[in-house]
Amino acid sequence: MVKRRKEDEIVGVLEFEGKTAEDPEVVGWLAEHKASNGGKLRLSLGSKGVRVAFSKAADMAAWQARQSGKGPRGPRS
pTM of the full predicted structure? Predict the structure, then answer.
């Protein structure tokens, strides 16, 4: 029998230039996100900073609005 893993669809990805996953600001954003709605986020290392992948469009919109002036690299699909 073959076991199948459930794969969540990725709505979009934001890359934050100059940030790492251990950056206190990013850790704070993740804690705030988890406390508010508990949606799934995936972190990875991008070419210029940390990448955050979203499984909900509402989560991505909230992060874009929060960081519109603080330098996310932009949405990726």
Answer: 0.65
